[in-house]
Amino acid sequence: MAESTKTGVDLANQDASANGRKPVVVVDDLHVKYRVYAGGKPVKGTGRSLLKRSGGGIREVHALKGVSFTAYENESIGVIGSNGSGKSTLMRTLVGLTPPSDGAVYASSRPNLLGVGAALIPDLSGEKNIQLGGLALGFSKQEINGLRDNIVQFAELEEFIDLPMRTYSSGMQARLKFAIAASKQHEILIVDEALAVGDQRFRKRSEARIREIRENAGTVFLVSHSMKSILDTCSRVIWINKGVLQMDGDPKEVVDAYQETKK
Ligand SMILES: Nc1ncnc2c1ncn2[C@@H]1O[C@H](COP(=O)(O)OP(=O)(O)OP(=O)(O)O)[C@@H](O)[C@H]1O
Ligand SMILES: [Mg+2]
User: Fold this and answer.
1) How many whole angstroms separate alpha carbon 63 and alpha carbon 89?
2) How far is the CA of 170 from the centre of ligand 1 (A)?
3) Could you tell me which of 3, 144, 193, 204 has the fewest CB atoms within 10 Å of its CB?
4) C-beta 89 within 6 A of ligand 1
5) How confident is the model at residue 91 (pLDDT cuts 50, 70, 90)?
6) Where is the ABC transporter domain positioned along the sequence (predicted)?
7) pLDDT of residue 106
8) For 125-179, what is each residue's pLDDT tens digit?
9) Which residue's CA is the closest to the ligand 1 atom numbered 31?
């Protein structure tokens, strides 16, 4: 198995077409295969081994089939495609959560997946989760205390911040997660469908924040099924279709071509 994301790489010489722009992520002939155990009954008496099953067998899902592109500083790249086309797989590979089966990902710094979600605990209050999420992002306790009011304000959760997070609606949870993650100026930020559950006003503010991160020399990947969000936010769009990079370029052109296939 190939190594996962190689970070801290000097990418300046990796791409001749850079035109002086600074490449921050290079994806080179990336393949990802999942091995899934399909059907079959567990064999009795094998105890904890899930691998031994009668019938069924191992199925391989080839989720990404040779994807290559280079992302540059200051770009916000929309990632579109039908359900199951491989968008989330690509994003998880960029942050090193899913290893490539073949090919490689090089990054100038470790990309952050907007998913402080993993670090948060539903039974704890919003307040405590801000601390946890902040620590997960690498902030010190003092830094978190300094950011706390902004996070609560951005999420508009003033009245609810002392309640357990499990009592929040899905939109409120998404706000809190976004507000925590976006409190940091990321070099490479990945947002996978996080905006989908927010209401329109929150979506607008989130999109504005994404643009701000990008303007401050960050690179943002935004995975979304909302073509409006993509067109409002992105400077470039990548269309993944059945694990293959179908198109990469101007947002309007790529979105139009994608929507044409949906008719
Ligand atoms: N953990 C996993 N184990 C096995 N197969 C997986 C796993 N994650 C994804 N897949 C498979 O990989 C393919 C790509 O899935 P992925 O989640 O990347 O799609 P997606 O483009 O993000 O879809 P959506 O728009 O629904 O979010 C699908 O066929 C899916 O079934
Ligand atoms: Mg997905």
Assistant:
1) 7
2) 22
3) 3
4) yes
5) very high
6) 45-263
7) 94
8) 999 999 998 888 888 999 999 999 999 999 999 999 999 999 999 888 888 888 8
9) 84
38 lines ligand 1 (CB under 6 A): no
192 Cα–ligand 2 center, Å: 7
How much is the pLDDT for 184? 81
For the chain, give every domain's residue range.
74-97+111-261
Identify the residue whose C-alpha is closest to ligand 1 atom 26: 83
Give me the DSSP letters along 62-126. Answer: EEEEEEEEEEETT-EEEEE-STTSSHHHHHHHHTTSS--SEEEEEESSPPEES-GGGG--TTSBH
- pLDDT given at position 47: 47
CATH class of the domain comprising 74-97+111-261: alpha beta
